[in-house]
Specification:
Layout lengths: L2 E6 L6 H9 L4 E7 L10 E4 L17 E4 L8 H22 L3 E5 L10 E4 L11 H15 L3 E5 L1 E3 L6 H12 L9 E2 L1 E3 H13 L6 E5 L5 E2 H11 L11 H7 L4 H10 L3 E3 L3 H6 L7 H17 L3
Parallel strand pairs: 1-2, 1-4, 2-3, 4-5, 5-7, 6-13, 7-11, 8-10
Antiparallel strand pairs: 9-12
Helix pairs in contact: 1-5, 2-3, 4-8, 6-10
């Protein structure tokens, strides 16, 4: 029996890994939603549709068994974020319900909870309190999916080849400070993008994971000291400047909103615990931050060498 799976964002950072993992599973036929039909992978059928234009989404879920929604608008103005993340998701879910899609999975973000501290927080324990337009509209998208009986997956920091936000942002912060940060004891939930892709595909096809919101991350949170040390040693950092404490770092970053954003996130615990998900998926949570980051480091060096 063949399972028809429709993926939005199938050419993106996370969605491309989900699509690759789904194609490896026997009996799964992958379709991808695309604003430009024919632009997706050669072994995936593309379905025309634009999340920014809900009218184009009517009928896209016809014949679909499982919908995996990975696409989102990150950054940009609040109106465009609302158009894609909120209204686009609402129209997509409505079409899935009309078509009788049996399972809806949405890849969201733990940022819907806002700023921490979050220390060992489990599903259902933290309120929804987003602080940015992106997170507010992704929280709205979650509500559409949950109201339809779907599954929401919330990673925190996702790293690996193709990451243009987490590690590049940390490198930018360290360069802004001309130093590394000392005295920060925060920990963060992290997962490499390959493991996340496999987890999303498994959750989409598993009969053991029910509806609701779950966290996806390696069970072992990463101390900030280890994260910054790896970035400095393997990707690039601030040189040999003397380390600075958090207060000094905040003063030095005052003129850079992006640096302040990363600093405020970095220095507060964001540890979301959901070890049971890996057991339900019958999937290993990956080899951990150090090994996965070392494999991706050459890509980061190349990406940042181009002036990003």
């Amino acid at each position: 029996m063949t399972t028809d799976l429709l993926i939005t964002g199938a050419t993106g950072f996370i969605g491309s890994r989900v699509a690759a993992a789904a194609r490896e599973r026997p009996g799964v036929r992958v379709r991808s939603l695309s604003r430009r039909p024919g632009g997706g992978p050669t072994d995936a059928r593309t379905v025309p549709g634009d999340l920014a234009d809900p009218r184009t989404l009517r009928g896209v879920c016809a014949g679909v068994d499982v919908l995996v929604h990975c696409a989102s608008r990150v950054g940009g103005d609040p109106e465009s974020a609302a158009a894609v993340n909120d209204l686009g998701t609402e129209a997509l879910v409505e079409d899935a319900v009309r078509a009788g899609v049996g399972r809806i999975v949405y890849v969201s973000t733990a940022a819907v909870h806002g700023r921490g501290p979050f220390h060992g927080v489990r599903p259902g324990q933290a309120p929804i309190a987003p602080v940015s337009a992106t997170s507010r509209t992704r929280a709205a998208a979650e509500r559409h999916v949950l109201d339809a009986g779907g599954l929401v997956l919330r990673p925190h920091l996702v790293h690996g080849e193709g990451d243009r936000w987490v590690v590049p942002g940390l490198v930018s912060l360290l360069r802004t400070l001309s130093a590394t940060i000392t005295g920060c004891t925060a920990v963060h939930s992290m997962t490499d993008v390959g493991t996340l892709g496999r987890a999303v595909a498994a959750a989409a096809l598993s009969p053991h994971v029910g509806p609701g919101a779950r966290y996806v991350g390696h069970p072992d949170p990463v101390p900030v000291a280890d994260l910054l040390a790896a970035v400095r040693a393997q990707v690039g950092g601030p040189g040999d400047g003397a380390p600075v404490d958090v207060a000094t770092a905040r003063a030095r970053a005052a003129g850079s909103p992006r640096a302040l954003h990363h600093l405020d996130m970095l220095t507060v615990d964001h540890w979301f615990a959901d070890d049971g998900l890996w057991k339900e998926l019958d999937l290993a949570p990956g080899e951990g931050f150090a090994a996965a980051f070392a494999r991706a480091a050459p890509w980061y060096r190349s990406y940042l060498a181009d002036g990003r």
